Amino acid sequence: MRAGLVFKKINIIAFIMMAFLMGSNNVLAQLDDPTRPPGYRLVLPGGKKASTKTYYSLSSVRISKMRRSAVINDRTVEAGDMVNGAKVIAIYPSSVKLSKQGKNFTIRLLSQVVKKTRVR
User: Fold this and answer.
1) How far is residue 64 CA from its own chain's centroid?
2) Contact between residue 68 and residue 62 where contact means Cβ atoms under 8 Å apart
3) Among 8-12, 39-43, 75-79, 102-106, the least confident range
């Protein structure tokens, strides 16, 4: 009688493991690897193609008497440096001016005002 219970438990555990392994392929295919560099994935799940547009993310700006630097796409840059094919033109307290293929554009630390508060 005891051997029958052990056998049932082994069958249940084996069934759970098989179900997990069979279903995990779909789950793992949908998970994104946080260690991949930005823009690495060119094909999204389901076969849709990702945009090839390069994105620039400004994380911080540091301005001192001697130096101006900014962190763009997790890389520290100064005026004149290149980041993802764009040249850093100028660094301001809350934005950075870039130039790519003859076109100038600005990226900002706070691109949108989330909510304006009213004082009553």
Assistant:
1) 29
2) yes
3) 39-43
Q: How far apart are CA 115 and CA 31, in angstroms?
A: 32
pTM for this model (two decimals): 0.51
Beta strands across the sheet bearing 103-108: 82-83, 86-91, 95-100, 103-108
Measured in residues, the chain has a length of 120
Distance separating alpha carbons of residues 57 and 37, to the nearest angstrom: 13
Contact 80, 68 (CB under 8 A): no
Neighbours of 6 (CB within 10 A): 9
Q: Tokens at residue 57, please?
A: 């993310």
* Chain CA centroid to CA 16, Å: 34
Give the pLDDT confidence score for residue 92 in this predicted structure.
94
